[in-house]
Amino acid sequence: EFQCSKAKDLEEQLRDLESVCNKNTDLESQLENQREKVSQYLIRIKNLEENLAETVSTKQNLLEEKQCFTERITELESQCSKEKDLEEQLRDLESVCNKNTDLESQLENQREKVSQYLIRIKNLEENLAETVPTKQNLL
């Protein structure tokens, strides 16, 4: 009976040991599953970090492009303002040229009139010269 009791105790201990082994196996399996999940999370974190770095780089590039576009727009606005100033100056110059053309035309008309007056004066002088000797002959 003593041996029977010992055998029962040993069997019970063996069952307890098997139960502990089974629990350990389950826990090891759970631990392995958790390790796999942690590994997957670490991979996801690494991928997210890479995506974030790429996004930050892209954002920086976009900011630089925006700055370049802003500078170009400022240059174009300045150029447009200069072009408008030049167009205004051109209109003023065209107005001056038109006025100059009018003045040249008026000057030409005046020259023509002076030329006609000179011809009339010459004709009058010739008539006078012809008339004066005739008067002297009469005297």
TrEMBL record:
Keywords, sorted A to Z: Coiled coil
Keyword Coiled coil recorded: yes
One Gene Ontology CC term in the entry: cytoskeleton
Transmembrane segments: none
Keyword Iron-sulfur in annotation: no
Molecular function, one GO term: structural constituent of cytoskeleton
Coiled coil: 7-127
Protein name: Uncharacterized protein
